[in-house]
Amino acid sequence: MAVKAPKLAKDFWGHFNRGVAWLIIGLQIIILAALGIVLYVVGFFENNPLAVVATLLAQTILGVLASALLFRFVARPLKDMLAAIIHVSGEPTTSTPPNPNDTRFEKSGFKDVLQTIYQLASNEPAPADAPATLSEGSEPAVTPQATHSIIERALDNTTCGFVVMNHERVITFSNKAAPINIDQNGTSHLSLLFNGEDTLENWLTHCEETAVRAEHTWTRIPNKLPEEEGRRFFDVIASYDKGAESEVVLTMIDRTEQYAVGEQELDFIAFAAHELRGPITVIRGYLDVLQDELSDVLRDDQHELFRRLTVSANRLSGYINNILNTSRYDRRHLKMHLTETSLSDIYDTIKDDMDLRASAQGRLLSVTIPSDLPHIAADPASLGEVMGNLIDNAIKYSNEGGAITVTASMKGELVEFSVEDHGIGMPGNVVSNLFQKFYRSHRSRETVAGTGIGLYISKAIVESHGGTISVRSEEGRGSTFIVSLPTYQAVAEKLKAGDNSNEALIEQGSGWIKNHSMYRG
Amino acid sequence: MAIQTILVIEDDRFIGEMYVRSLKKAGYDVDWMIDGNDGLIAARNKAYDLLLLDVMLPERRGSDILEALRGGSEDLIPHSKVLVLTNFEQDDESRLAMEKRADGYLIKAEITPSKLLAVIKQLDSQQ
Known about the structure:
The complex is a heterodimer of chains A (521) and B (127). Chain A is α+β, with helices and mostly antiparallel strands. Helices cover 48% and strands 17% of the residues of chain A. In chain A, helix 10 (343-360) packs parallel to helix 11 and helix 11 (380-396) packs antiparallel against helix 14. Chain A starts with 10 loop residues before the first helix and ends in an 8-residue tail after the last strand. Chain B has a single domain (5-113), classed as Rossmann fold (3-Layer(aba) Sandwich). In chain B, strands 2-1-3-4-5 form a five-stranded parallel beta sheet, sandwiched between helices.
């Protein structure tokens, strides 16, 4: 068999260039000869033979130059493509591979072509005669090529990103939807910005040390910084299988649409909070000032009206807090700043408000919270809101003159806080749905106003403290809501004993426990 | 040294007047600045016992004022206490940064003038 074709891809360019050069020169000579014959036959040479010959020669030389120039321009993408192929084929070469991020490629749109070449190269197993850099050590896949490409095509058609890595954390496969950057060496990199310490790298290191098989999920992982163009959000699921050819498999679900909206709303919430709280500040503040300044002038019934104004403004304020907290919680931005405190201290911050609410609505509120209970790790404002919500509900769902009893005690390892009313109570089927968002029982829809987020957000807050909330109720006889919380000591020890992700950021006394996600699932 | 002189930096007239009125009535000497630049200058020119600092301010945000006063190697207001009073929901990082430098961080909507007086008394008793 005649081996005329170049052996290496990089030899092709010289060969091709020579061929083109011969073609250009040959064509020009043919044109020159044809023109010469025509001019001779017509009799042009007789007048001024020298000038005609000179013109013909000039035309030929210019023609060669022009053709060569044209060739250089037309063949440029071919040359770049070839350089990329030479590079990915692994042939020895001194030239630098074309960089897809070069501005001239970006302008002409050639970038995609180059990226496709690099990507194809990093996806396909290297051909047998070239030294394989990717599937090193492993047996060539026994799966027939056809099956392989059907699966790959199918994966490329999904909107889910898939990435496979070997034991050296080198990406051996990625489909089209995967957020991948390919550098000029043809190496793929994941472009995901993990949050804090909880990165893929750290998890893999942890797996390598301790696990044979493991799975981990990250949510809301962006591929770019805020404000950057083309920012997308992914939920990432990683599975790890020690020693397997595909040791790490990543599945990335594009959640941009859900999360991007969340981001905007979050911004909106921050400003809405400011706007809603402004007027409330003024109303509550001026009522406070006026009530004080007018205390000697007002008649008793006018005092009562003032009290009602205050109670209403306070309830509105509480409700605004519920809305803000619910929005934050639903977007996973509800964070607890846990600090060492006691139930009685927290209740003291809302005591006046609660007394006022109960008396304005004719309920008998009795509160017994022993001040010597063990301390708890709590976000005082949030837990105060929970207490307020429960007492508010007890007021709402009981009758005028009804007694509401708030107590607290130690139950085993937990500090328990309960709110008991003797109101309308609930049947069992209502109790089971009680903590759902927007849930309101059929009957309470008709008789009591409300939106059904109070218990939902209370549960979220209590659970963020590592506690539980439960309810005992009997229809017609009243309900008791019980909040159980771990002691400060227990939380502090758990944080200390926890893995390094908590970084033991605990200071005793008045310091913050700077851990916001410990109890978030 | 009990708290006697107070600087209120607050751009909302309704809210500012409310605090100034009740603080004056309670016997404090109160100065009130509307924008962030004036607030910073006032805080540096006179050693107030207490600063009430809003966050969303024209010209210069409260967080920047606090940074300028206490962010450097030297505390420029070593004799003053600072209470941050805001209705704005800051991101965690900014909030924690301010909490670290201030003596208190309160949501205005939760703090009626009488509660504010109680907080100031408490600050006083901590000394």
